[in-house]
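Hi,

I'm pasting everything inline rather than attaching a file, because the server keeps stripping attachments. The sequence lines come first, and each chain or strand is labelled.
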Amino acid sequence: MAAVIAHLGPRGTFSEQAALAYQTWLQENQGQDSSLMAYPSILQAIQAVDQEAATLAIVPVENSIEGSVAVTLDTLWQLASLQIQQALVLPIRHNLITHAHRTEQIEAIYSHPQALGQCQQWITRHCPQAILVPTRSTAESLRHLEDNATTAAIASTWAADLYQLPVLARTINDQPDNCTKFWILGKSPSTQGNHTSLAFSLPINAPGALLKPLEIFAQADINLSRIESRPTKRSLGEYLFFLDLEASLTAVHTQQTLQAIEDCTEQLKLFGSYDTIPIARPAVE
Amino acid sequence: MAAVIAHLGPRGTFSEQAALAYQTWLQENQGQDSSLMAYPSILQAIQAVDQEAATLAIVPVENSIEGSVAVTLDTLWQLASLQIQQALVLPIRHNLITHAHRTEQIEAIYSHPQALGQCQQWITRHCPQAILVPTRSTAESLRHLEDNATTAAIASTWAADLYQLPVLARTINDQPDNCTKFWILGKSPSTQGNHTSLAFSLPINAPGALLKPLEIFAQADINLSRIESRPTKRSLGEYLFFLDLEASLTAVHTQQTLQAIEDCTEQLKLFGSYDTIPIARPAVE
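And the predicted assembly:
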């Protein structure tokens, strides 16, 4: 049966690019057919899997410039049913898409707030006069262009091609190494793979209590590749911690260490062990 | 000479409410006159102080639901000149502002993405049909109402009064304890106060290296009230860590501990010691 892969829409988002790359990987490596389904928000894409309207969701979790995608972490914590099946890293290239012939003509630039943030220095240098207008996705920003030569959007060249719109300036992101990590979420148990992700709350409401779990991982010689705090949403100063470990849940050593972690945390949730799948190049540039 | 306080505008934002509360505190406690100046972004408000167009900037740093305000942390790291003068915690109450008489009439809800996020459950229950449209501030969302009874905005009752717009539903935030912490940034050296904020990068690009500084604080019996990671923006997996300590830079013990921290971090920046000023109630509800 073909899998249904949920992602943030509309057509032309970086999430759709990641979904296309994953679809190719699924076909080539697991002989699995799949179709893509766009949702208007990351939350709705994840909920679609929880409610079994989709098999998998591919969602951004971290960008190298802007940091964590809060809604992805918060939703994973709230929905107990989901596990991380794989990870995938997509290079991000932003482009100025507009009917204008010169940057001086541009009065307003539309894009997702993260994209606007990632091109801030370029915009200040080339379009200091432009006001910046946030949209729900980079792809959605293209809807604001119409035939107006005083507006511009920031999105991928692939999105520009898709909507047949002209690119005035290519690769305008301030950092050339801009990339986004995506997680593929599903309901299958995940125990295979070299990375393990988890989150916990602490019995004492102070990050000082974080020392104990970090000591346990250090003593077990398990390396942490990431640590991120999120508010518990109960009151200011109470946090959840999201950790990525370089360890597999299949190893007895990992299981023993997590037993010790369970003893010094309030609530511990395991999101599974998984690998980062290689994509030779973005499905489309 | 009157101080100029920069904040995120336009008129009616929660940042302006915080600025008004701080203005009252400055007058009553330090006999200091001040005027407010609105900027179109948090970045520009902070830069105004760096460039001496304003004396102080009051900027949001953390919300109890949505977590850290990334631009505030990132800008403080980049601009070496600024110190935290004080902190202030403002209760946040969101309200549905619209010309509609019933929630069923509403086709679109405008607000800042954080405000939309903080009212998500209420919106799903009362306006499931509405599309959500992000704006740059809660106050800006009010501009989208005009005379149209099919649109709504989410902002404070104070902003509704300011623009003489009707409130259809009060206190629609999903969590009653919603509050935002603001920092007041300026160029004066900050050494007095019971909280100290700092940030550092690590010589080894792995959060495992975070264990050493945390151990030093624990051995020195200095409590951490917050820890937050941000990307270095160099490459995925490299982080800066922002810490709030319950300690004062005037104490010799703190200075000695920070000396040991300096030895095990790559780059260490101190943002000063400061107190949280009490506000009996928000300047306006």
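Residues 108 and 282 of chain B are 29 Å apart (CA to CA).

If the labels don't parse on your end, tell me and I'll reformat.
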